Amino acid sequence: MQFRNDIQGIRGLAFLLVFIFHLNYNWLPGGFIGVDVFFVISGFLMTSIIVGEKEKSDFSFYNFYLKRLKRIFPAYLFLLIIIASAGFFIYLDRDFWGFQKSVGASLLFVSNLLFARGDSYFGARLEDNPFLHTWSLAVEMQFYLLLPLIIIFIRKRFLPIVIILLIVALTAYANISMYLSHDTSIKYFSLPARIPEFLIGSLYSVTLKGKMNFSRTNNNIITTLSLGILILSAFLMDKNTPFPGATALIPTIATANLLVTGSNFVSDFFAKKIPRYIGELSYSLYLWHWPLIAYIRYYNDEYSLSTPEVIFICILTGLMAWVSYRFIENYFRKKNSPVFLRYSVSGSVLLGLLTLFLPKVAEIYKIPDIYTSPTFGVDSHNQKKTEFFGDRAAKSPKILLIGDSHALTIKPFLNYIGERNHFSFTTVTSDGIIALHGIKRDEIPSYGMKFYDAAQQLAPFTEQNISQNKIIMINCSTFISPPSVYETIEKIARNLKHDQKLVVFETYPTVDRDPIKINRDYIKRTSRKFVVTINKENRSALQKLAASHHNIYFYDLSKSKVFETAPFYKDTLMYYNRSHLNVYGSVSLAKDLEKDFMSFFTPILNEEK
């Protein structure tokens, strides 16, 4: 296929859309469509190449896949080695397991499957993962496995019909799946949901290439409208737009129009030196920009980037992209297969060794787990299993603690007080949301769906335990969001037996940054000031709930003086992230509130004896 400078320029545009979006999605809310532009171009070019070789009876599966690997893998492997090496000195020990999985999945081009599973509830967020952007390369490589099979084994006259049917069927599949699951994240990373975007390029290649050539005036109108639609999509779509699916057809068709329309000034512009040069570097630019952004966000635990950070990212991205393009991409394009294979094997082995052994080196900076992760009461968390805590020998009423991860983190609090004041309790808790029926699925944001589904599976077990206990204690990060949580707690209160009591906690405050990322130790090192936030609206709602039901009691954990210096207490870390107490913090809370809590709780205990 003849090389086209204007396609290089369009690649440059695609990168800029993605880059601006990644720097700050408020600047260009729909800039993620730049990835879809890349997909259309890939589908168009690869289809053109395969069809051309098929017509000459010169197509070889081996040569096709080898050329794709030689084009993509050398620079990609170079990136993985450098970023993985840096990561073990930036990432916290608690996040290494997720980091290692990301490296392995990226190397094997299956990272889209890993990231489709969403965030770990307690681990690093996806927006901090330096390998998140590799999902698109994984989808592209997976598509390359399928495309030659479609084109080679289907007769030319049937090919457009088959492509159209696949586009319609897979687009419908993506839309129906997103509607039924209320979750766009899984489909966002899904190969089947993304295949239509590649196939738009394929369809235009086999049906319209060289045929959309009218007068230059009409060509200018078509390309101007198409470019306008593409740019408007980048401004008008956002992360809440149902995507991919039918919505993705808008920017992808607009992109395809730019690829097949004859002589026009839009193509002339994209063929100029600067757009073309950005397009030539676009692959390496795409590879390097995201890890730099992600590492800065991870280290600072802050989404917003300062002006100096943006400038630094732009300069270093350009520099590393030029190095990668000049010394890796171009070098291996000219080298024979044995050289490429030796580099690939040796580089992959090196990456594997780094991934396995660098965490051992980084252990010298390891912070004890009790400060960095939930370590107490985890056997009764997210599992159909209860645990006993407190004074097991005491003859106290049967007490149950339920709730979300905030209930998990006050188990040490209640255990400390229970041991010293002779009561015991059992627990069953879950991530993200309390495990009770009645919480409405359509109120849950897409990123919380997997936690909701897991909690709903645990709900019968939780409700069974509620019926078997006299005092039920509930702690949640919030009782008012989603609204059906509050309604569900009210329903429980109404349905309690006459001898059952319900205790609801106003939970502890949150802080604005992850203190472990900021402090990098459990002893206070940082001078940064943290913003401590108490959910006053939640507290008011719980006070109202307790006042309106004779069998509901309210206790406020947030009133403790230990939070005056949060996230530290006596210069020791008491939070393991921005919203969860660690064991030290929970026990410190117990020591401060023991007398106050027992003056509140003793009458409830005595009433049940």
Automatic annotation (TrEMBL):
Q: Which UniProt keywords apply?
A: Membrane, Transmembrane, Transmembrane helix
Q: Name one GO cellular component term.
A: membrane
Acyltransferase domain sequence ranges: 6-325
One of the Pfam families matching this protein, by short name: Acyl_transf_3
| Transmembrane segment boundaries | 7-25, 31-51, 72-92, 135-154, 161-180, 186-206, 218-237, 243-260, 281-298, 310-328, 340-358
Keyword flag Disulfide bond: no
Identify a single GO molecular function assigned to this protein.
acyltransferase activity, transferring groups other than amino-acyl groups
Alphabetized SUPFAM superfamilies for the sequence: SGNH hydrolase
Q: Name one GO biological process term.
A: lipopolysaccharide biosynthetic process
Q: Where is the SGNH domain?
A: 385-594
What is the protein name for this chain? Acyltransferase
Q: Which organism is it from?
A: Chryseobacterium pennae
